Structure formats: C-alpha cells, structure tokens
Amino acid sequence: MSWNNWLLQIPRWLSVAFTVAVILNIIAVVQEKSTVWCDVLAVLPLGLLLLAGLCLFLLPYAARWRGR
C-alpha cells in the first residue's frame, strides 16, 4: 500500500475510533459512571484526527512547493 493510501486510511479509522469513543462516553454518562479517563478517551482520537486532517489539508500545498 502506498503512502497516499495510508494517508487517506488513517483519518477514516480515526473517525471510527472517535465515534466509538463518543458512544462509550454517552453510555458512561447515562449510567452515571463517567470518569476522567472516559472523557479523555473521546479527546485522544479527536486530537489525532485534527493532526491527520491538517496533514491532508497541507499536502497539496507541499506538492506544489516541491514542484517549483
């Protein structure tokens, strides 16, 4: 698998992880068993998703810069 495919797959799987973490967080809040680590569980994939999205955003600009 090439780097381009990996770069596209990472945000997809991170969004799945974020969705699962949010669902688990909602279940914990409804059962009144919410803890700090449960809140962080949803924030961690979100931060990684932000970094991956920024990389994908900057990728065309970096390709143009390298092409000159």
- What portion of residues is helical? over 70%
**What is the percentage of strand-forming residues?**
under 5%
Number of β-strand runs: 0
Please count the helical segments.
2
Largest sheet: none
Helix and strand sequence = HH
**Rg, Å, rounded:** 16 Å
Mean pLDDT over the residues: 84
Q: In terms of per-residue confidence, which ranges show pLDDT below 50 for 5 or more consecutive residues? A: none
Domain count: the total is: 1
Q: Based on CA inertia axes, which overall geometry fits?
A: elongated
Q: What is the terminal-to-terminal distance?
A: 27 Å
Structural features, described:
This is Transmembrane protein. Keywords: Membrane, Transmembrane, Transmembrane helix. The chain crosses the membrane at residues 12-30, 42-63. It contains 2 helices and no strands. The longest helix is centred in the C-terminal third of the chain and has 32 residues, at 36-67. It is elongated. It has 68 residues and is mainly alpha-helical. It has helices at residues 3-30, 36-67. The chain has one domain (3-67). The two termini are 27 Å apart. The mean pLDDT is 84. α1 (3-30) runs antiparallel to α2 (36-67).
Quick synopsis:
This protein is mainly α. 88% of the residues lie in helices and 0% in strands. It contains two helices and no strands.
